[in-house]
Design brief:
The chain is α+β, with helices and mostly antiparallel strands and about 160 residues long. It has five helices and eight strands. It has one domain: Nucleotide cyclase, GGDEF domain (Alpha-Beta Plaits, 2-Layer Sandwich). It is about 40% helix and about 25% strand. Helix 1 crosses helix 2. The two termini are about 25 Å apart.
């Protein structure tokens, strides 16, 4: 979720925690509908794994659309905005409670530290796993995080609503 510090300072932690719960109730069914598995929620972050990067991208797009639609019905101070990071690679999953590995770190950094509200960032490795016929539009970029540069893409999704 985007805007934690500002919203918490302005409206208080209970207000923001209610928004976190709404985010959780919205994201979990979307993750599952695209074949993903919820791993955990940590503060205002959602950690999920998917069978392939295309499923992750489609779920992220569906989440962006879901929050955009919900925000039409709420006052501005209740609007939820998210930023997403997606990577591909070997991940250590412990039970269904936690996950570790370079892809987790890179996706987390991109989604939390680099992506702005409404953006979906994906590493080049993950993007290369998406078949061209899927029609995913993306703009190439380099992401600098914690002293490393990650070749990445920003997914362009405004009109596309993927089916589960």
């Amino acid at each position: 979720m985007s805007g934690f510090s500002l919203l918490t300072r302005k409206y208080g932690i209970v207000h923001y925690l209610s928004m976190v719960r709404r985010m959780q109730l919205t994201t979990e069914p979307i993750v599952k509908s695209y074949g993903g598995s919820m791993i955990k929620y940590e503060a205002d972050n959602c950690f999920a794994v998917f069978p392939d990067p295309l499923s992750a991208v489609n779920a992220a797009i569906a989440m962006q659309h879901a929050f955009r639609a919900a925000n039409l019905l709420t006052a501005d101070e209740l609007d939820i905005h998210i930023a997403c990071g997606i990577d591909y690679g070997k991940v250590l999953i412990i039970g269904h409670e936690d996950c570790f590995g370079d892809p987790v770190n890179r996706a987390s950094k991109m989604g939390e530290d680099v992506a702005c509200s409404g953006e979906i960032l994906i590493t080049r490795e993950a993007m290369q796993m998406i078949p061209a016929e899927a029609g995913v539009q993306a703009r190439e970029m380099n992401v600098s995080i914690s002293g490393i540069t990650i070749p990445a893409y920003m997914i362009e999704y405004r009109e596309k609503i993927p089916a589960p």
